[in-house]
Design brief:
- The protein is of the alpha/beta class.
- About 35% of the residues lie in helices and about 15% in strands.
- It has one domain: Phosphoglycerate mutase-like (Rossmann fold, 3-Layer(aba) Sandwich).
- It has helices at about 10-15, 30-40, 55-70, 95-110, 120-140, 150-160, 170-175; strands at about 1-5, 50-55, 75, 145-150, 180-185, 190-200.
- Helix 2 runs parallel beside helix 3 (about 55-70) and helix 5 (about 120-140) crosses helix 6 (about 150-160).
- The longest helix is centred in the middle third of the chain and has 18 residues, at about 120-140.
- The radius of gyration is 16 Å and the shape is globular.
Length: about 220
């Protein structure tokens, strides 16, 4: 199976640098809507058998043009939303961001018991993301290509913890821009391998806002 793990387009929280992980979450910016349209165009020739998004509005809005272009019904997955910020929800200061990232980075070092203040630990996160990936794999054959529109933190941590050829040191030191695409191949039984990592906006550099704080998309 090929999984196209796609980060959502720019949201208002990305533009302001705010930690926003609760549903439904902020909408896309005007630039984000342009990025979503560019995503559909950029993947025009890519095989795609099914398309899913998280439970947050920004992923639905990102996936909508692609679903429309390909004539696919957009499915929702309840385990691929962003890593919960808990007590830090809505903050945008450096101290809060560090308090959020410190336990998340510990997960990559093997300390899955580290907990985001007021939220969950690494075991909980990996379990819910694994569950959604297994759900997708059970619905579609091994020859399928399935798109999942998710979030920067979630994609990076899951790949660092669950793929055989990229470790957390790589995923935390390589950015994942809005509409960045990572291709993963494998199955839940055999394991997963990253086929390609693209830390650039899939629609091109002209659709990337380098001025935006975007705390979870840049190098951690």
């Amino acid at each position: 199976m090929r999984l196209l793990l796609i980060r959502h387009a720019q949201s208002h929280a990305n533009a302001s640098g705010e930690l926003s992980t609760a549903a439904p979450g902020p909408d896309l910016t005007d630039l984000g809507r342009e990025q979503a349209e560019a995503l559909a165009e950029a993947l025009r020739q890519e095989p795609l058998d099914a398309l899913y998004a998280s439970t947050l509005a920004r992923t639905h809005q990102t996936a909508a043009p692609l679903a429309r272009e390909r004539g696919l019904e957009l499915g929702l997955l309840d385990g691929v939303h962003e890593i919960e910020a808990g007590d830090l929800e809505g903050t945008a200061d450096e101290e809060s961001l560090r308090a959020y990232l410190t336990p998340v980075l510990k997960w990559g070092a093997g300390d899955l018991g580290a907990r985001v203040p007021g939220a969950f630990d690494g075991e909980h996160f990996l379990s819910r993301f694994d569950r959604s990936v297994a759900e997708v794999a059970a619905r579609h054959g091994e020859a399928s290509t399935v798109g999942i529109v998710s979030h920067a933190g979630s994609i990076r941590v899951w790949i660092g913890g669950r793929t055989t050829n990229l470790d957390p040191a790589f995923t935390s030191s390589h950015s994942l821009d809005n509409t960045g695409l990572i291709v993963v191949v494998g199955t839940p039984e055999s394991g997963w391998r990253v086929e390609s990592w693209m830390g650039e906006p899939i629609g091109g550099e002209s659709l990337e806002d380098r001025r935006a704080p975007d705390p979870l998309g840049h190098v951690l």
